[in-house]
């Protein structure tokens, strides 16, 4: 898919997801280029229709974007139950299991996903795969980065500490932790792998999302229009 087709697909998915948001809702706001289109459209609905919502941002980047689009912000402390969350993904399999975290925001994104009644995942078609096989990001307590990396290697990964692009040294997340990217190749049993990673002390959260499939709706943006997939 060329870049302009991909941008149009992301925009269509993002805009479509914003139409699912109703007056008075508390909305989880994911991180990434696709969900930013959703925020842009939500901002337009606030201005044009008087839509009244508040968003819980999953990163500094999401908070900055939401403010720019005029979306009032709140927190999980104030709203531990969210009506809906909108987020992107790096890969989606036919059972609606996800790999997330290219933007290193998956720890907060998982908290928001867990707190939401419904979750809209906005992607372009390149993200839809038969088998999850992208590197799985793991947010790691810096104190334990070596022990966690050893345990991840024992699970079959090739763990790589994520380095900054416009910064020397490791990427530091919004929570003050490191990211270790783990290539496992094709992941035969994502549910088990997520549980195994969760059992490692110091591995704070991984980018596999396997337990929310029943409340997820995937909006797949196409160059023209969208298709919608859910298990319900
Ligand atoms: O998980 C994420 C950030 O942690 C993003 O949602 C995911 O990387 C998709 O991003 P994009 O919409 O820019 O392709």
Automatic annotation (TrEMBL):
Explain the purpose of this protein: Catalyzes the reversible conversion of ribose-5-phosphate to ribulose 5-phosphate.
Gene name, per UniProt, is: rpiA
The name of this protein is Ribose-5-phosphate isomerase A
Q: What class of enzyme is it?
A: isomerase
The family database entries (HAMAP family) matched by this protein are listed as: Rib_5P_isom_A
InterPro entries, A to Z: NagB/RpiA_transferase-like, Ribose5P_isomerase_typA_subgr, Ribose5P_isomerase_type_A
Catalytic activity line of the entry: aldehydo-D-ribose 5-phosphate = D-ribulose 5-phosphate
Molecular function (GO) terms for this protein are: ribose-5-phosphate isomerase activity
Highest rank taxon of the organism: Archaea
Q: What is its EC number?
A: 5.3.1.6
Question: Quaternary structure?
Answer: Homotetramer. Homodimer.
Q: Name one GO cellular component term.
A: cytosol
Q: In which pathway does it act?
A: Carbohydrate degradation; pentose phosphate pathway; D-ribose 5-phosphate from D-ribulose 5-phosphate (non-oxidative stage): step 1/1
Q: Which organism is it from?
A: Methanoculleus formosensis
Keywords, in A-Z order: Isomerase
- Active-site residues? 109 (proton acceptor)
């Amino acid at each position: 898919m060329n870049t302009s087709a991909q941008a149009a697909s992301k925009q269509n998915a993002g805009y479509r997801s914003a139409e699912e948001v109703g007056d008075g809702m508390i909305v989880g706001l994911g991180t990434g280029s696709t969900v930013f289109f959703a925020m842009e459209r939500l901002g337009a609905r606030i201005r044009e229709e008087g839509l009244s919502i508040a968003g819980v941002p999953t990163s500094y980047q999401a908070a900055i974007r939401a403010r720019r689009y005029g979306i009032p912000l709140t927190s999980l402390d104030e709203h531990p139950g969210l009506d809906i969350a909108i987020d992107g993904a790096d890969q989606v399999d036919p059972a609606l299991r996800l790999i997330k975290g290219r933007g290193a925001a998956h720890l907060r994104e998982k908290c928001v996903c867990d707190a939401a009644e419904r979750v809209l995942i906005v992607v372009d078609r390149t993200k839809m795969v038969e088998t999850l096989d992208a590197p799985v990001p793991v947010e790691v307590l810096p104190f334990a980065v070596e022990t966690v990396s050893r345990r991840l290697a024992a699970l079959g990964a090739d763990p790589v500490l994520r380095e900054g692009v416009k910064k020397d040294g490791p990427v530091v997340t919004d929570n003050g932790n490191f990211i270790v990217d783990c290539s496992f190749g094709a992941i035969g049993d994502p549910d088990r792998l997520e549980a195994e990673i969760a059992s490692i002390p110091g591995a704070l959260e991984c980018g596999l999302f396997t337990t929310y499939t029943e409340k997820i709706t995937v909006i797949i943006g196409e160059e023209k229009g969208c298709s919608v997939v859910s298990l319900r």
